[in-house]
Specification:
With 527 residues, the protein is an alpha+beta fold. It is built from 18 helices and 18 strands. Bound molecules: flavin-adenine dinucleotide (FAD).
Amino acid sequence: ENFPIVSQFMVMFIITRLLSIVCKAKPLAHCLSNELAEKLRTDPKSISTASVDFGNIVREAPEAVLHPSCPEDIADLVRSAYCDGDSSIPFAIAARGRGHSIRGQAMARGGVVVDMTSLARHHSGGAAISVSWSRHLGYYADVSGGQLWRDVLEETLRQGLSPVSWTDYLYLTVGGTLSNAGISGQTFRYGPQISNVYEMDVITGTGKLTTCSPDENQELFYSVLGGLGQFGIITRARIALDRAPKRVKWMRMLYSDFSAFTKDQEYLISKNGRYQDNALDYVEGLLLMHQGPPDSWRSSFFPLSDHPRIISLLKQHKIIYCIEVAKYYDDLTQNTVNKDLENLFQGLSHIPKFMFQKDIAYVDFLDRVREGELKLTAQGLWDVPHPWLNLFVPKSRIADFNDGVFKNIVLKRNITTGTILIYPMSRNKWDDRMSAVVPDEDVFYTVGFLHSSGFDDWEKFDLQNKELLRFCEDAGIELKHYLPSFGNEQQWTRHFGSKWRRFHQRKARFDPKMILSPGQRIFSRNQ
Ligand code: FAD
């Protein structure tokens, strides 16, 4: 009686919308509790937010968005889709972290999108991130799957601790990056983020909430890591922690010669023992092209007073290769860090006098991309289309890639204004039991074309992406895509290579009705 008329109307509206989803797919309404139905939103703002992503290229509208307050809400929803035993197609469900995918991977056309950040929000006061220690694991944090890495950093730093493996940008969710890999300059030494997880709670495509680890439900554990959301929804992850350093020596050196650049990068990542004193903590690299300024939105690094001489170097060489490294230090190592770096850099062949250094707080180093995001947001340029392309290139073909792609396509087309990243990592830091796919060579490079286009011209970047992929195909360069997006099963089969059969079997086992993450477009739901 006291239920306001507006709320009654809303509930009726939601139930009617749900019925419409359900009628198209399969009878679901009788499986949904009222409590769950109330957590589904169908208002235009919720639908439109869940219909776009950072790529701003694909648009797929769900019928409803779930804002879960606990993992059971998600399990109820998945069971609702799975519950009916007949052969009709159940409605699809996609977990959405921050929707920072590029090609609709977190969308669910006509289905339900689960806003995972809502799960994290419902643990206010930091309770969604709890830090513990065990003799077996050392320090670790249990975090919600919808938690932003930035929040994980802040909370663990309070206790003098920190995760060891990062992405360049921290406003991504734990579940989202673990579904891909989570890579950055730390990967060569600490492995990708998926190599730094001890345990997870996962809701599979049958609606079962399962705890998994290398010792318990092992197959699910390895399936989900790098599994593109295909096998389950991560509601909790147990992340490895270490003592947090205080400060960072952040350095860049410039090269005009590609082989000197890659030789030095490979030397620097060869010192990759986790507890090795003379190892760097972060090694990346990027291309500077004569048509752009030396700094980009991703970081303002070079001193303004040095811009003129860097620009004149760029005019001379057209492409300059830049190694970017970081070494952490704290009170104990502050007196030795410079000497360690000096020793490590002996014999490097960068252009003399083109080495630059900054000394900044650890948190500022990790959060370095945020400043650029805020600037672009203020200018209305953060939400433009992003036809990004991320590739893993085997070390044996990286020189061919430089000649054929950077020099012959990117430089000639002269349209690239965003960042191009290039840095190596070692295969032995990746666990082959996981779903993530990397090239079959001990060392491979990640190359990221992080294009920012205007609102109407993203297709020209897409054409460049296609052209360079065609070049690699013709030249027999065996690439793997990172954050992949393919249009048909044949391309996926090729992408996964020897892992495809197992990927397929895992899907049949953990999500037999193909309910989860349809936006990846790996499996056809009409089979
Ligand atoms: P979403 O895009 O929302 O989801 C990605 C996929 O995972 C979808 O298929 C979704 O259904 C699934 N998913 C989401 N949450 C869960 C969950 N809890 N359980 C199961 N499946 C789930 N990546 C790097 O590795 N390194 C970087 O340095 C890096 N920098 C980036 C910088 C920017 C500015 C942007 C936009 C992206 C960057 N990325 C980087 C890519 C990023 O890792 C991916 O976009 C990833 O998808 C994480 O984003 P998200 O949390 O928004 O996930």
